[in-house]
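User
Please review the sequence:
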Amino acid sequence: MIGAGETAAELIGSLAGRSVLDPAVPTPLVYVDREVLERNIDRMATAARQSGVALRPHVKSHKMADIARLQRAAGAIGLTVAKLSEAQALAAAGVEGGFMVAQPYTGGGRAEAHLELARGREVIACVDSIELTRELGAAGAAHGKPVDVVLIVDTGYGRLGVVPPEAVELGARMAAEPGVRFRGIRSHSGRAYTLAGLETRRRIAADDARAMRDVAAALAARDVACDIVSVGSTPGTAGLADPDAFAGITDWRPGNYVFFDRTQVEFGAATHADCALTVITSIVSATAPGRAVIDAGRKTFSSTTAREQPGFGHVVDREGVDIHALSEECGWVRSTTPLQVGARLRVIPNHACELPNLAEVVAHGTDGIIHGAWVPVARGRVW
């Protein structure tokens, strides 16, 4: 229990050397195995080098300065953030290098905040309309400093961006706007989240890269240079090292690969042994055979379901245990074997990226032993 004046990070730090299964360790606890984490970071960095591309990893998955520094040390040329405020938080925590802001933004003084953050570092805005380009350009012109922008291209996911036939015309118009500096194009290989299997993911990644090369070539024919041609998602890059498929691509932007999760295992992008982030949760009620309640609910796991498997996570080293429902603070467990009050479960979540945004502090260590605590400094940054 947190004492007077003690922070959650200090509490977890004081438990260094203890097992996550030790009753003295409070649950629910989000725990990252640092050895697995660093292996994942190194593997992706190696795959990028083998493919002839740089890495600009997405930090929305972890929101932690310490992990961002590990990615930078492994060779990342910069970092991708979802929101401008995430970049501000990481910069304030001392993370060096540039940022690509993946989500378009408007109003709220954020164009000016973008320019302020860009003093001494690269900050790139991603947009898919001439309206937002002009909004950014107006701020850039007013401050005498152009805003770097890239155009979001929709290669089939159907979220942000314009389709390739429209991208060439829009990119040329953006490049002609005052107050902005057109840097290139980026996509998101989100289709790789809809179909499983290595060969399917390989095909989707190659198709996306081909579409982006075609857009860049068509822009070049109109004297619009793309020094950035950026693609990627974790299933669209993990295990897909291929210099031919990614020829002409400048960088990848995977995010979830630092942790992986149950969903990535379903896609074949990872194994359970690759999953660096788990939730440690305690059984707090077991009033009937085959049924129990744990102390982790939606406020720990989120309510994300897996693509194919039922329940809210994979329970490690326990067969026949299923977290089949969640309330805000509790999880309902079914089990084919007896469960005792006080027993602990270690769970690989369905989707790891939401958990650091929910957790005040994340424990880290190796082989279930706590070494210290990390604070997700960019959690809750919705602006």
